[in-house]
Design goal:
By secondary structure, the chain is of the alpha/beta class. Helices cover 51% and strands 14% of the residues. The protein has 12 helices and 8 strands. The N terminus is likely disordered.
């Protein structure tokens, strides 16, 4: 199949981490990328060497007629981008579908285009993390997108995600901020936890790289166990076993050497203790004691 046999004409606004990954992943025979728009001319230069498009521009007025526009820019700029698109659309309707990739904003931010130009709108957010590498395009495979918006736009979203090898989860607008909060904590806050862990390991003369190399097998096994058995069955460690002495020793070390990490240990420990079940009476009694220790040690 050649580029004359396309089934989808696409424009992408914004080629940061998400937009560039989408541009690369959708650079297929069945997709014709008509335009890539970005305010950064250097990013346009880079993407022009990687993705075949008819137009690369810093000016939104250069948008040609397409089927789909995907806005992949920071959340704070989406409303103003929609206002700019309104002006461009006032001369000619340039797309049938407009999506944005924000995790927290709903399709409501696109409503001016729907009201004035009768386009179908939706938010289409990848539940994935991107590093800015050229290999990010592969991260869509088997990943999920959360989607909400017009029914017609969600049908088009399914076509796009099928091309990416991704899956869709439909949510209602009111659920979106909570869903994004959960995804943020799962991804970004894992980094926070690992910042703490690698900082601890620096005190036994391990660099961040060395510490992470040691931890990777543990992290991978933990995630694999969670995937296979669920959160509770995958849990191991001193809190689960009811090892009072170990928990006390941890808190003593934190108090003496790492007081800035103590509260995180306490809060995470309380979450663990409230979500596990003891397998014996003696362990259950120890869990009660550990819960009290974690509560009374608060700053």
């Amino acid at each position: 199949m050649n580029r004359t046999d396309v089934g989808l004409r696409l424009a992408i606004i914004g080629v940061g981490r998400v937009g560039s990954a989408l541009a690369l992943a959708l650079d297929k025979d069945v997709v014709e990328t008509k335009a890539i728009i970005d305010s950064d001319s250097e990013r346009l230069r880079i993407i022009s060497n990687l993705v075949e498009a008819s137009c690369y521009s810093t000016d939104i007025a250069d948008l040609p007629v397409v089927d789909v526009i995907i806005i992949a820019i920071p959340d704070d700029g989406i409303a103003s981008m929609v206002a700019r698109l309104e002006k461009v659309f006032s001369h000619q309707k340039l797309a049938q579908f407009v999506f944005h990739t924000s995790g927290v904003l709903t399709s409501e931010v696109l409503m001016p285009l729907k009201k004035k130009q009768s386009v179908f709108i939706a938010s289409l957010h990848p539940v994935q993390t991107f590093s800015g590498s050229i290999d990010d395009q592969r991260r869509f495979k088997h990943a999920y997108f959360d989607v909400e918006g017009d029914a017609e736009a969600m049908v088009q979203a399914e076509i796009i995600t099928n091309l990416l090898g991704s899956q869709l989860i439909e949510i209602i607008p009111e659920q979106k901020p909570i869903f994004h909060l959960a995804c943020t904590m799962a991804s970004n806050y894992l980094n926070s936890l690992l910042f703490m862990v690698t900082n601890l390991m620096k005190h036994i003369d391990l660099s961040e790289k060395e510490a992470l190399n040691i931890l990777y097998p543990l992290l991978e096994a933990t995630l694999q166990n969670i995937k296979q058995d669920g959160l509770e069955k995958a849990l191991t460690g001193p809190v689960l076993r009811g090892d009072i002495g170990t928990v006390q020793k941890h808190l003593q070390i934190l108090q003496n050497k790492f007081p800035h990490f103590k509260q995180a240990y306490l809060e995470l420990g309380k979450i663990l203790i409230s979500n596990i079940k003891a397998n014996t009476t003696s362990v259950e009694k120890n869990h009660i004691i550990i819960k009290k220790i974690l509560t009374t040690n608060e700053s």
